[in-house]
Amino acid sequence: MPVGDKPSLRVILCSPRGFCAGVVRAIDSVERALALYGPPVYVRHEIVHNRYVVDSLKLKGAIFVEELDEIPDTDAPVVFSAHGVPKSVPEDARDRHFITLDATCPLVTKVHREAEIHFRRGREVLLIGHSGHPEVVGTMGQLPPGAISLIETPEGARTFVPKDPDNLAYVTQTTLSIEDAAGIVTILKERFPAIVGPHKDDICYATTNRQEAVKRVAPLVDAMVVVGAPNSSNSQRLKEVALRAGCPYAELVQRATDLDWEKLGAIKSLGVTAGASAPEVLVEEVLDAFAQRYTLAVETMAAADESVFFPLPRPLRSEAAE
Ligand code: SF4
């Protein structure tokens, strides 16, 4: 029922949403480095894929670069982003005597170690993931060039020609769609029954839980708004998952100003979630924008409880405890 002159809107907040433990650790690493060393602190690549976060850290003295050769000779520390880096990057940093702080998410590092173990055991390694994503670049860069083959699609899995079909292993990007990854793994297992992989896949708890929450909410709402960046893999997947789970319309927005009111149309119910790199303040901004047009009845639908915590990188840790 409309209240006053505004129509009513049922809003279901997906839970969990937004920041994961790896993102919190990465942002805290930059903030802690700024506090310990003073500005500037160099950060290779966006520490997490969120412009608001990056701009906030820039204001505090972080300088973002894509490659180390953009950094002058300096005593300032260099932080590696949550997505992980190829092995060549810490090697180059050592050659240049940089102080480095590795904010790679421990769940990405786990995938790096898996790939290394497979390689040491003489297996040809397949990485299921999206070409060009920094996590994929980082994982492929753990092994010598050519040691890892990237599988992006079911078609890629169907046509891949191994050197030895009985000596294969796979790892996956941490932020894939659960269904897409499962489909590709099924094809690989059918074609190569001896292929070795993780127990299920390497998709992290945060990606899994956020997708699960969206799946529950999507069939109940007229539209889903995903707060997140266009270059954030897990945010893009949340939008896809919402559409596949039966939501008629889904939109990925970085800020409230990105909301497309025309496309959203005359909705009566709305789901809201946020990618793992999107801060809650931006969810609140989006809700405020809806509250200006609608009378909101907000509820939360939870798919999982999260209590995961990752300690800071070691060089920042003892100081952090003080
Ligand atoms: Fe780590 Fe998953 Fe968060 Fe990526 S999305 S930083 S892998 S917890």
What report would you give on this structure?
The chain is of the alpha/beta class and about 325 residues long. It has three domains: about 110 residues, 4-hydroxy-3-methylbut-2-enyl diphosphate reductase, catalytic domain (Cobalt-precorrin-4 Transmethylase, domain 1), CATH 3.40.1010; about 80 residues, 3-Layer(aba) Sandwich (Rossmann fold); about 80 residues, 4-hydroxy-3-methylbut-2-enyl diphosphate reductase, catalytic domain (Cobalt-precorrin-4 Transmethylase, domain 1), CATH 3.40.1010.20. Helices cover about 40% and strands about 20% of the residues. It is built from twelve helices and twelve strands. It has a five-stranded parallel sheet with strand order 10-9-11-1-12, sandwiched between helices. Strands 3-2-4-5 form a four-stranded parallel sheet, with helices on both faces. A three-stranded parallel sheet has the order 7-6-8, with helices on both faces. Helix 9 links the parallel strand 9 and strand 10. The termini are far apart. It binds iron/sulfur cluster (SF4).
**Strand elements, count:** 12
By CATH, the superfamily of the largest domain comes out as 4-hydroxy-3-methylbut-2-enyl diphosphate reductase, catalytic domain
Instruction: Indicate the structural class.
Output: alpha/beta
Oligomeric form of this entry? single chain
Number of helices: 12
N-end to C-end Cα span? 54 Å
Average pLDDT figure: 96
Rough outline: flat
Under CATH, the topology of the largest domain can be stated as Cobalt-precorrin-4 Transmethylase, domain 1
The major pleated sheet works out as: 5 strands, parallel
Instruction: Please give the CATH class of the largest domain.
Output: Alpha Beta
> How many structural units, i.e. domains?
3
Q: Provide the helix percentage.
A: 25-40%
Low-confidence stretches: none
What ligand molecules are bound, each kind once? iron/sulfur cluster
What's the SSE pattern?
EHEHEEHEHEHEHEHHEHEHEHEH
- Alpha-carbon Rg, integer: 21 Å
Looking at the overall shape, the CATH architecture of the largest domain is 3-Layer(aba) Sandwich
Report strand %: 15-25%
